[in-house]
Design brief:
Layout (H helix, E strand, L loop, with lengths): L1 E5 L16 H11 L30 H13 L28 H9 L9 H15 L8 E2 L19 H10 L4 H10 L36 H7 L6 H4 L7 H6 L5 H4 L4 H16 L9 E2 L5 E10 L5 E11 L1
Parallel strand pairs: 1-5
Antiparallel strand pairs: 2-3, 4-5
Helix pairs in contact: 2-3, 2-4, 6-11
The structure holds 2-acetamido-2-deoxy-beta-D-glucopyranose (4 copies).
Amino acid sequence: MLLLVSCLFLHLYPAFAYLYPDRLYEELEHLLVDTNGYNSGHFAVGVTPCTLYFQGPQTTGRQTSAQWMRVAFHDFSTANVAAGTGGIDASIGFETTRPENSGIAMNDSLSYWAPFVNTYASMADMVALGSTVASAACGGPIFPFKGGRISATQAGEFGVPEPDEELQPTLERFAGAGFSQTRAIQLTACSVHHAGFPLIVDTSVVTPNNTQGGIHFDDTVAVFDNHVVTEYIDGTTPNPLVTSFNVSQRSDLRLFSSDNNATMQGLQDAATFASVCTDVFTQMLNTVPSGVSLRDITPIPLKPVNIQLGVSSAGTATLTGAIRVCLS
Ligand SMILES: *[C@@H]1O[C@H](CO)[C@@H](O)[C@H](O)[C@H]1NC(C)=O
Ligand SMILES: *[C@@H]1O[C@H](CO)[C@@H](O)[C@H](O)[C@H]1NC(C)=O
Ligand SMILES: *[C@@H]1O[C@H](CO)[C@@H](O)[C@H](O)[C@H]1NC(C)=O
Ligand SMILES: *[C@@H]1O[C@H](CO)[C@@H](O)[C@H](O)[C@H]1NC(C)=O
């Protein structure tokens, strides 16, 4: 049997090295590429369409794609690159009761990813794959994906930046994780985040169609685009971390304006935004503890799927399975 799939990102990877069998590679590539139809890896189901809330009613104001990016950011942001600790290591699984990780996004996401974890693919790889697949499901940039992360066996450091934190400590946390002020602004502008009442927005946002008071950060909820930037610049942003009635919760305003809005102004062009977001997300997702080495997981142009050789008692050999062909 011949399976044809469209591999949008094939052209991004001129250098390609795959030797069958290579279980980690095959497993992660399957989840990344086989997003629907026959032989689907089912990983992308949770974020298809982009506005879906997978774990409950569509009236809570929650969005699974945004949750997946939030989890990656929370897992990453306590990295200490000088010490070679933290980053994307799934330590977040031991940190869900910390106030800095409040909300159901962590548990929702980790529960969704758990069945995809096996001998080859780690939960830490799922954390990174989640953001990669979510961006693609929302029409955002395709982040080059690497695999081979190792999951932590215990909690890591505290220190996820919070909405009511002052600018200086926030910049210090980003610096510790390897992000300059400019890149901290870029990553924050690129991240889809979620805020809820009552600390940040008032109860008027709660309606029958938004029972948990979720607030979107721009007017294009179903698309990963740069409206979060353009609406900030033109003063129409709904981003509560810019406009909150509670001034101490305006962490995005403090960060975005910390260089007189220069970085935000540089993100107004849609193509620039997409390429900068690819850069900063790639840096974030590939920030891992020292000693972990990552490998490129690129679409495999010709991939054997479920190949089995059977031999009957009469001595007849039968080879079954499929060859998946990537159309770019
Ligand atoms: C997430 O799950 C952990 C472990 O089961 C639990 O202790 C924690 O309270 C849960 N968090 C939320 C917000 O439900
Ligand atoms: C505003 O945010 C601060 C810091 O989190 C919090 O202590 C305070 O209660 C909030 N104010 C209101 C009116 O909710
Ligand atoms: C809630 O959503 C339904 C279905 O999309 C729509 O018909 C209704 O007008 C919405 N109600 C409010 C209060 O926005
Ligand atoms: C930055 O942009 C925001 C939003 O448009 C604006 O409120 C703020 O005054 C600007 N700050 C500086 C220093 O230009």
